[in-house]
Design brief:
mainly beta; single chain; globular; 65 residues; 0% helix
Length: 65
C-alpha cells in the first residue's frame, strides 16, 4: 500500500477470481474485522498474512492488506 492510494480486493460472485479496486488518498473505510492468518515460506517459517475487512464509501465489502 502506498501513501497516495490503497488497493482493495473483493470477491465478485460472477467471477472465479478476486477483483481489485484502487482507492485514492483520503478514501474512508469502516473497519469490520481483522483477519489473522499465516502462510508457510519455502524454508518452513510462518509469515504473517493479516488483512482488514472493511466497508468502502460505496457500501462494498473490501479487504485491505
Amino acid at each position: 500500500m502506498s501513501r497516495d492510494q490503497a488497493i482493495g480486493y473483493f470477491k465478485d460472485a460472477n467471477l472465479s477470481h478476486w477483483s481489485s479496486k484502487t482507492y485514492p488518498q483520503g478514501a474512508i473505510f469502516r473497519a469490520e474485522r481483522i483477519h489473522h492468518s499465516s502462510v508457510s515460506s519455502n524454508n518452513g517459517h510462518q509469515t504473517a498474512n493479516d488483512y482488514l475487512e472493511c466497508v468502502d464509501e460505496d457500501g462494498y465489502i473490501v479487504f485491505l492488506k
